Amino acid sequence: MPPCTSGEIRWWIFLTEGLFFGLLLYSSLDTLSHTVGNPTHQVKGILGGSVLLPANVSQGITVEKIEWDFYPQRGGPGFWLAEFSHGKLEHQSPTDRFEQRLDMVDETTLRIKDLELDDSGIYNARIWFMKSQFKEQSFNLTVYEPVPTPQIHFQEVSQTSEGCSVTLQCQAPRKEEFSISWKRGNPPRALGNSLYEYQLSDSGRNLHVFWRKDSSDSAFTCLLTNSVDQKNASFDLLKICPGDDGVQVRRQRHIISTAVVMLLIMMVVAVMWMWMRRK
C-alpha cells in the first residue's frame, strides 16, 4: 500500500475533526432538548392528605416499568424509592421510608398517602419503554401544614356620635407561612379602598376600623391562607359598638313590608288559579 500524501492526511484530519464536532453538537442538542422538554413539575400537598404524581406518557405507548427515586428537601442522600411494572409494586425501597403509603392509581400515576412533612423533595421517574429506551420526569413536592384556626380580639374601642372606632386583631396559635387578609359583610367581600374607614398594620394582622352607625356591614372576617388550605373567623361589631336604632327599625320595616308584599302576591295568584279552574 503506497504511503498517504500530505493532502490526504490533511483531508483525514479534517474529516475526523468534523465528525467529532458533529457528534459533540448532536449530544449538546440532545441534552438541551431533554432539559427543555422535561421540566420539573411543582406539586403541593397538605399534611395527612395525598398527592398524585402522573408520569406523562403518550397514549398507545406501552410502558415496561417505572423506577422512582427520592431526594429529600431537607437534605440527606437520595435513595431508590420503588419500581412499578404494569401498575403493580414489584420492589419497594429497602429503607421502608414510605411503608405502605405508596400505590399506583393506574399504570403511570404514583400516589403518596398520609403525607408527612419529610415527604417534601424531588421525585424522579425513569420511564422504560424498552430495555434501552427511557425518559425521565421530575416532581418537586412540597407538603404544607394545615392553616390554624384564627381568633379575633378587639382593643382601643372609642365611640362618637357618628360611630365607633376599634382595632381588630387576627391571632393564630402558632406562627407559620400563611397570608392574612380581611373582608367585611355577610357574605364576606373586599374591604374597599377607604383609608378613612379601614387601615391595616402589623403585616395585616391588625385592622383599624371606623364603623359608622348607619352602615349595613357590621361583620368582619379574618382569613388565614397558604397554598393548600384556608381558615377564617368572623366578628360582629354590634357586640361592642351600639348601632343606630333608627337603622334597625328601618331594616325591620323593610323586612316586614317585603313579607307582606310576597304574601299579597301569593294570595292574588291563588285567587286567579281558582277562578281559572272554575271557568
TrEMBL record:
> Which SMART domains does this entry report, sorted A to Z?
IG
Q: Which residues cross the membrane?
A: 12-29, 255-276
Residue ranges of domain Ig-like in the record: 150-234
* Location(s) in or outside the cell: Membrane
Keywords recorded for this protein, A-Z: Glycoprotein, Membrane, Signal, Transmembrane, Transmembrane helix
Q: Which GO terms describe its cellular component?
A: membrane
The cross-references to Pfam families, in alphabetical order and at most eight, read: V-set
Q: What is its main location?
A: membrane
| Gene3D superfamilies for the chain | Immunoglobulins
Name listed for the protein in its UniProt record: T-lymphocyte surface antigen Ly-9-like
What gene is this protein a product of? LOC114586629
